[in-house]
Amino acid sequence: MVAVKPFCALRFSPDVAPPRAGDGHISDASQLIAPPYDVIDPEQQEQLYQTSPYNIVRLILGKQYPSDTPQENRYTRAQRDFEAWRTNGTLQLDAAPALYLIEHTFDDQGRTRCRLGFTVLLQLDEATPRAVYRHEATLAAPKEDRTKLLDAVPANLEPIFCLYPDDGGKIHALLDELRTQLTPSLQATFKADTIRLWAVTQPTILESVARHLASVAALIADGHHRFEVAYANRARYPALMSYFVSMADPSLIMRAIHRVIQPPVVVDMRALQALCVLEPAANLTSLLGWLERGNDQGCFGFFNGTTFYRLMLNSDQLARWLLTPLVPQPIAGLDVSILHSLILPHLGIDGSSVRYTAQAAHAVEQVTSGQGVCAWLLRAIPLPQVYALAAHGSVLPPKSTYFYPKVPSGLTINPLR
Length: 417
Prior knowledge:
By secondary structure, the chain is an alpha+beta fold. The chain folds into 2 domains: 4-254 and 404-415, no CATH class; 257-379, no CATH class. It is 32% helix and 27% strand. It is built from 15 helices and 23 strands. It has helices spanning 42-51, 57-60, 74-87, 128-131, 140-152, 170-179, 203-213, 224-232, 269-275, 284-293, 315-323, 329-332, 335-346, 360-368, 383-391; strands at residues 4-5, 10-12, 19-20, 23-28, 91-93, 99-108, 111-123, 132-133, 155-156, 160-164, 186-190, 193-200, 218-222, 239-246, 253-255, 258-261, 276-281, 299-303, 308-313, 354-357, 374-377, 402-404, 414-415. The longest helix is centred in the N-terminal third of the chain and has 14 residues, at 74-87. The two termini are 27 Å apart.
């Protein structure tokens, strides 16, 4: 169902990504890559700008200035840089179409993991919505932003992140074996992560991957706004650079996103106790362990600045909610739906007071420091459940999933002209 093909990527030349010491044929792109545009804050943007005059951030998320005009702005500057980098050879086009195999080694709570994915072109046509599932709602402002960038820079500058079913992990095993037989052409480090890339051109490998993806439907993990912009422009540009990871990959990590309620909100503990059962927990570690072990609906970790609590929605309240929810039935039983559509409204708290983080310790720190009044700790939704909901057309509440780590930008670019 998913139609993909290899492509000739634009990649940074050896002049700006010189070979690593001792590895004469492996380019070092450490100074050139960046996280996806939508997770870069102003401080990190400045750091990336200082890292290199050719860092990909200058294309995917250029700086804005008070003096910007319709003729001079982040999009026109990205256009000039992109054109200059192609003209002066900073970016060079690979000679042969390839599948770009990417190994991403990272730390997961003290354990070293290695996720394996590949970047190819996803073909866009009228059948694509039936083959590529979406689970997040999109917003007009980010789509307008990415449309302006696409109009200025006709290229896929960073891939969307997709997952595909892989019963028995056959495709994952095929690619895992392949990476042990080939020499990577690129390596990069970003903070504690190490990324290696191989340009795979063997016809048998390309055919095996394409044939398998043609038999399944994929799930967008990250990049919903970029996907919708690309799909809306499919008449001009009928393909989208996409990074795929097998759902059988043991290092595919999906984390929960926790909530921090901001001042000046005051949480009425009596109102909360009328709706939920609260039991004190010894500390954050024991609270997170309880959350991970549980599978009942409507269970949360809660921290009010002084005490950690195991919090469970009252059973009769849960039954009434599931019988007549205020959200579509398929997603009503999700903890994130119960929190945002039942518990927080009961406390008089709306979405404008909520901030998000994928790190439980950071949520607690925000409350301890006074930047938040309380923290709600959630469990990750099982990936098969996310896939099944998306397959039935269900849209999850905002900030329901966090796939870790994010896919680096700057490894490959797909020129559209």
